Amino acid sequence: MGNINTSLVNQASASTCCLVVERQSAFPWGNRGIDTSKPTQLNVDDVLWTEVVEAIDPLARRLNTGFCTALVLYVVTIGIFVGLGASGVIRQYNDDGPSLFLIVVWASIPLYLGAIMYIYEVQNRRVDNQVKQLVEGWKYRFEDAGYSLDYRTQHTGTCKPKHARSERLLAFVPIESATLASTTNTGTSLASKEAAFSDEPIATNIDIEMNAGLASTTQGLSLVDQLQQDDKLFR
């Protein structure tokens, strides 16, 4: 099995240009935007490139928004009640009722997890859907420029392998490379068929003439035998 943290950029071919929408990070503190500079290998119009980065950059900044805030609020809440418990304020309340500290802790955990799930499964999914819609609208324009546009994502959900990191990017694949690969596969298939056909025996003109002569000789002998039988009947 390969490394689950292998970057999508490293998985792309050498001729593929990438626009990273979300970089791999050890902790999703929120996206700071994209690198708006055009790759030197990407031969497209500057107007089209500017349109792409101006539309993608604000969407990229919305990824994982609120994650850091939810974590900070969770830690601060727990810290405040730990401090109050140490000072004896909560201890006086606990003498007459349930443990306020435990109530807050157990209530904070599902609230924190609910916020994380909302960020991953609702907020980020909306961004992905909007990016996909934009990509569908740009595909034909990039195909005219000689590129196939694709939006690639990896480990973007709430449930993911251990230590896995999410990543998103736009891949610009030269159409010539894809066509060349397809042509190579087709040529290999045709060559294998020709090789298989060449192994079959081929009938030559001499073989055809010999077979025809044998057939006519057999037919002639059968006619002679029939005449001899008729002559015997008349006698």
Give the key terms.
single chain; 235 residues; mainly alpha; 3 strands
What does this structure look like?
It is a single chain. With 235 residues, the chain is mainly α. The chain contains 7 helices and 3 strands. It has helices spanning 8-11, 46-61, 67-87, 89-94, 100-144, 175-198, 205-234, and strands at 17-22, 147-154, 167-174. It has a 3-stranded antiparallel sheet with strand order 1-3-2. The model is unreliable at 217-221 (pLDDT under 50).
Determine the number of helices (DSSP H or I, runs of at least 4 residues).
7
User: For the report, how would you describe the main beta sheet?
Assistant: 3 strands, antiparallel
**Going across the major beta sheet, what is the strand order?**
1-3-2
Q: Helix-strand pattern, N to C?
A: HEHHHHEEHH
Number of strands: 3
Q: If you compute it from the alpha carbons, what radius of gyration comes out, rounded to the nearest whole angstrom?
A: 38 Å
Mean pLDDT across residues:
76
Structural class, by secondary structure, is: mainly alpha
**Low-confidence residue ranges:** 217-221
Task: Write down the overall geometry.
Answer: elongated
Helix content: 55-70%
Alpha carbon gap, first and last residue: 94 Å
Strand fraction equals 5-15%
Topology:
Layout lengths: L7 H4 L5 E6 L23 H16 L5 H21 L1 H6 L5 H45 L2 E8 L12 E8 H24 L6 H30 L1
Antiparallel strand pairs: 1-3, 2-3
Helix pairs in contact: 2-5, 3-5
